[in-house]
Each structure stands twice: as structure tokens, then as C-alpha cells.
Automatic annotation (TrEMBL):
Disordered: annotated segments: 112-139
Record localization: Cell membrane
Bilayer disposition of the protein: Single-pass membrane protein
Record bears the keyword Signal: no
Location (main, coarse): membrane
Biased composition range(s): Basic and acidic residues: 120-139
Transmembrane segments: 12-32
Annotated protein name in UniProt: Sec translocon accessory complex subunit YajC
Organism in which the protein naturally occurs: Treponema phagedenis
A Pfam family this chain is assigned to: YajC
InterPro entries, alphabetized: Preprotein_translocase_YajC
Length: 139
């Protein structure tokens, strides 16, 4: 039996399979790998920005205040006479001071926001409702 004509006919659809495989890989990247890298970068920035006085929660659930920070470790004050030295990677959450939170929020609002198709138009400011003049009571 001669299989050569069957093999030649099957080669025509291989580009469709390659395109669909590429599409699946692209979708996988955008929905799984991309957000994971973004979250990892955000966590690393948070750990690198630790300062004395920051309230933190470790991955073990211990709450404390950063009393000093070294290259790879952080000393957190848990109670009056209790200090723990933990790795920077063991910090799960940083509860920043209200002052720093306000500064970060102001900086975020001042930064230009971009949409998918370029700069986003400035949103009009909401006007405060004006108080209507009161009519005299004619009773």
C-alpha cells in the first residue's frame, strides 16, 4: 500500500495546529504567568522598602514592629522585651504608617493613568450641590 499521498495531504493543516498552540501559550502567559510575576515584583518591592517603625505580619502570623533592618534579616519587636530576628522573605504583609499610606496614595493619584489606547482623559470634578435659595413662607 502506498502511504505517501496520505502523508502529503496531512501536511497542509500543520500551520493551523502551530497557530492554535501559540494562542494557547499566549493565553496561558497572560492569565497565569504575567499576573504571578507582577505580584512577585510587588512583594519584592514591599520587602525592600521595609523601614524602622513599619508594622508587619510574618508568614507565621506574628505581628510586630520593625526595630531594625539588615541586608537579609529584619528584627521585629513583638512585645516590650521581646524581639525576633526573621528573614526578610518571612514578612508576609507590611502595614505601613498612615502617613506613608497617604503619601503613596497622593503619588498614585498624581501619576498619569494610561488606558489601552493612550492617555486617559481627566475625569471632570464633581461639583458640590448648590444650596437653593429659600422662598419666603406665605402662610
Amino acid at each position: 500500500m502506498n502511504f505517501i499521498p496520505l502523508l502529503q495531504a496531512a501536511q497542509g493543516g500543520s500551520w493551523i495546529m502551530m497557530v492554535s498552540l501559540g494562542a494557547v501559550i499566549a493565553i496561558f502567559y497572560f492569565f497565569v504567568i504575567g499576573p504571578q510575576k507582577k505580584e512577585q515584583k510587588k512583594t519584592q518591592e514591599m520587602i525592600n522598602a521595609l523601614q524602622k517603625g513599619d508594622k508587619v505580619i510574618t508568614i507565621g502570623g506574628i505581628h510586630g514592629v520593625v526595630s531594625s533592618a539588615k541586608d537579609k534579616t529584619v528584627i521585629i519587636k513583638v512585645d516590650d522585651n521581646c524581639k525576633l530576628e526573621v528573614n526578610r522573605t518571612a514578612i508576609g504583609t507590611v502595614i505601613a504608617d498612615e502617613k506613608r499610606l497617604k503619601e503613596m496614595k497622593d503619588a498614585e493619584q498624581a501619576a498619569p493613568k494610561f488606558s489601552l489606547f493612550g492617555k486617559k482623559k481627566a475625569e471632570p470634578k464633581a461639583e458640590e450641590p448648590k444650596e437653593e435659595p429659600k422662598c419666603p413662607d406665605f402662610r
